[in-house]
Amino acid sequence: MKESEKGIWGKEFGEFLECDELTPSASLTRTVSGTIVGYLNPSPYRVFRKLLLITALAGPATLLVCPQMGLGPDHSPLMHLFMQFGPTACHAACAAFFSLVCLTIASFILRPEELRVASSNTLLFAAATAAVSLVVFLCATPLLVSTIVVVWFFGAVVGGATGIRIADYTRRVMVSY
User: What is the mean pLDDT of residues 85-111?
Assistant: First the structure.
């Protein structure tokens, strides 16, 4: 910066400091305050909608690695690993993998304020996301056995809750450094 520019900026800054204080209107103050409060305290419904959108985008990618309820490749290394423990454990593990990946990705996309809302409602959000995902799977493959559906749901809730907790913990550790 040139010496002449510093003098001009210094003069303008001095004039700014000497100006009379202006008070914004009450309506402007309410609008700005409401916007800030809304930003810092997001609605749980809005956070849930974001989780669903991210799950809808990330979920199909998980099917390439671990097929769910007949969707995806017939055999994958992850499915082979899970099948060693039996078909019931495989359904639970695939569901946990599905939700863990989706909600972990979602949790890193969410703003810190949104992640706080998701973390304070971990089981609710994991269960609701798992239920919506399960409905989508049932629409795609309607001939599923009820036992598989129940096992899948519980696996998805555990995986989703774990994903949110992992992301929350990781973000807190990253922010503290």
Answer: 85
